[in-house]
């Protein structure tokens, strides 16, 4: 059983217009409804990563700066290095 999905942003989650497609939004919502944690994993800083995600209304944790910062669904920092 899948418990966690981690996805990169550029070229993976985001389309050519740097937006999350409706199809990806629905897939994330479905995964979450099945109890799967979906995490954004990126080299971007949090505020750069959040810009294209915020309009979707998705509540997801973020692994930013190549793992140097981790934030929960409420955007609270839970780990830094």
UniProtKB/TrEMBL annotation:
Keyword terms, alphabetized: Hydrolase
Keyword Hydrolase included in the entry's annotation: yes
InterPro entries attached to this UniProt entry: HAD-like_sf, HAD-SF_hydro_IIB, HAD_sf
Pfam families the record matches: Hydrolase_3
Residue ranges of coiled coil: none
Gene Ontology cellular-component annotations: cytosol
Gene Ontology molecular function terms on file: magnesium ion binding; phosphatase activity
Protein name: Cof-type HAD-IIB family hydrolase
Lineage start: Bacteria, Bacillati, Bacillota, Bacilli, Bacillales
């Amino acid at each position: 059983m899948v418990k966690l999905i981690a996805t990169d942003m550029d070229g993976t989650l985001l389309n050519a217009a740097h937006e999350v497609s409706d199809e990806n939004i629905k897939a994330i919502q479905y995964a979450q409804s099945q109890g799967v944690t979906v995490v954004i994993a990126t080299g971007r800083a949090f505020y750069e990563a959040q810009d294209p995600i915020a309009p979707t209304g998705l509540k997801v944790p973020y692994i930013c700066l190549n793992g140097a910062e981790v934030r929960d669904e409420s955007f609270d920092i839970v780990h830094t290095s």
